[in-house]
Automatic annotation (TrEMBL):
<dbReference type="InterPro" id="IPR012338">
    <property type="entry name" value="Beta-lactam/transpept-like"/>
</dbReference>
<feature type="signal peptide">
    <location>
        <begin position="1"/>
        <end position="21"/>
    </location>
</feature>
<keyword id="KW-0732">Signal</keyword>
<feature type="domain" description="Beta-lactamase-related">
    <location>
        <begin position="45"/>
        <end position="341"/>
    </location>
</feature>
<comment type="similarity">
    <text>Belongs to the beta-lactamase family.</text>
</comment>
<protein>
    <recommendedName>
        <fullName>Beta-lactamase-related domain-containing protein</fullName>
    </recommendedName>
</protein>
<dbReference type="Pfam" id="PF00144">
    <property type="entry name" value="Beta-lactamase"/>
</dbReference>
<dbReference type="InterPro" id="IPR001466">
    <property type="entry name" value="Beta-lactam-related"/>
</dbReference>
<dbReference type="InterPro" id="IPR051478">
    <property type="entry name" value="Beta-lactamase-like_AB/R"/>
</dbReference>
Length: 449
């Protein structure tokens, strides 16, 4: 399970990574523990500094492919796509093909309505800085297949969405993360250039930065399969909203992206300007000590600034970031829907972001779990089955895959994604019901079997 290997690249001064202050053994032990607890199927952590590149891996990419992930393996990266979309937009600004202050509707078909607040138009700068006031997801998102939620959402659906949305705040006044906003930005750029989104990314980002694996075209042969828990899940496909989450990339490409942002690789003058533009700070966010730039989030503590972006899809999670003061970049990829941002922040600034203790074992004595087994009614036509396999507990809605749930407290378990929790109502007479916490929603169910 344990694997550490290094690649020293000719584009950097080669020495050793000993000058870095993070504890490499702690990183390896932590990701090993994540895999051992079955929270992640496999993990690859990449670090770049003036000394070269170093990779840490844990786990096996799948039950059918029992090998550790490689730097060239391709993952879904979700909202990390934003950095590529922002870089492409900045490149077009540098080339004077677009301007940040131009209203969005200047680039759209005349028949498409766009949101506005009074007389204030929606501008490209609002899309790239997540200050558009648009919701995270489009209101008309109704996927045919919830396991591939954006596959059938076309540009026409985007037009419908932005035509019916009314802004409740002035554009530019407040940070609200919006995948719809970045999806719209990516589409505007394709209209301006006459390219597909993939062609746009290749010409404006991948080719200038010499990236080898980043693409908007899904190639299952190059992908490591996504997982929820240890169960494989389908890949996500993208159409109209690709600019907000539709790229696939590798650890080696994302490390090179961080190197470009720290001026550690030689770029054309205009490409360097475009990359640097994404770091320009625009406004504060709702997160402590964190600003949003023209692409990157920027979190400052003490004298250090960490530039970062994360993303998550149905079966993957990604983190990419860099610390320009220490010339350190970091990428964390996993083919499970359980992120490891804490590892990335620890590597980039160990003093301000200490690494948590390894997660506790997900096992419970079988005798303790037996009392939870049964079927629970959680709605008029909704049931959930709780089953046990040795020292592991599972939850399954009839007709859907079975997912493992992990102990997080007394009589409390959580899905691997962490966004759904199950609390068992245990009394002297035994377990007679459950409470499900799904975000802010609470659902109570009675045991019927």
């Amino acid at each position: 399970m344990r694997s550490v290997f290094s690649l020293l690249t000719p584009l950097l001064a080669v020495s050793s990574l000993s000058a870095q202050t993070f504890d490499a053994k702690r990183v390896q032990d932590y990701i090993d523990a994540r895999v051992d607890r079955e929270l992640n199927q496999s993990i690859i952590v990449g670090v770049i500094s003036l000394s070269g590149e170093k990779y840490f891996t844990a786990g096996e990419v799948s039950a059918k492919d029992p090998r550790p992930p490689k730097p060239e393996d391709v993952f879904e990266i979700g909202a990390v796509t934003d950095i590529f979309t922002a870089t492409a937009a900045a490149s077009l600004v540098v080339d004077r093909q677009i301007t940040w202050m131009q209203p969005v509707n200047a680039y759209l078909p005349e028949y498409v309505g766009t949101p506005h607040f009074g007389h204030l138009p929606l501008q490209l700068v609002h899309l790239v800085t997540h200050t558009s006031g648009l919701p995270h997801n489009p209101p008309n998102l109704q996927p045919k297949d919830v396991s591939d939620p954006f596959a059938d959402f076309t540009n026409d659906h985007t037009y419908v969405a932005i035509s019916v949305i009314g802004l409740t705040i002035p554009p530019g006044s407040e940070y609200r993360f919006s995948m719809l906003g970045y999806g719209l930005l990516g589409h505007v750029l394709t209209l301006r250039t006459g390219q597909t989104f993939n062609e746009l990314i290749q010409t404006r980002v991948s080719q200038p930065l010499t990236l080898q694996d980043t693409t908007a075209v899904l190639d299952p042969a190059k992908m490591v399969p996504g997982h929820q828990g240890l169960q494989e899940v389908p890949n996500w496909h993208w159409d109209g909203l690709a600019g907000g989450g539709g790229l696939y990339s590798s650890a080696r490409d994302l490390l090179r992206l961080t190197a470009a942002n720290m001026s550690m690789i030689k770029l054309d003058k205009d490409d360097e300007r475009a990359v640097r533009t994404t770091q320009n700070v625009f406004t504060k966010t709702s997160m402590p000590n964190t600003m949003i730039g023209y692409g990157w989030h920027v979190t400052r503590k003490a004298l250090q600034a960490v530039y970062w972006q994360n993303g998550k899809t149905g079966g993957y999670a990604a983190f990419v970031g860099f610390n320009p003061s220490t010339k350190t970049g970091c990428v964390v990829l996993t083919n499970s829907a359980q992120g490891l941002d804490d590892v990335g922040f620890y590597i980039l600034d160990p003093e301000q972001y200490p690494l948590p203790k390894p997660p506790p074992s997900g096992l419970r004595p079988a005798k303790q779990l037996m009392k939870y087994e049964g079927t629970y009614q959680v709605g008029p036509d909704a049931k959930i089955d709780i089953t046990r396999d040795g020292e592991k507990l599972y939850a399954q809605i009839p007709g859907q895959p079975r997912y493992r749930v992990y102990p997080v407290g007394k009589n409390e378990f959580a899905y691997a994604t962490g966004d759904v929790r199950i609390i068992f109502d245990d009394s002297k007479r035994g377990v007679n019901g459950i409470t499900m916490l799904i975000g802010l929603k609470k659902i109570q169910g009675k045991r019927i079997k």
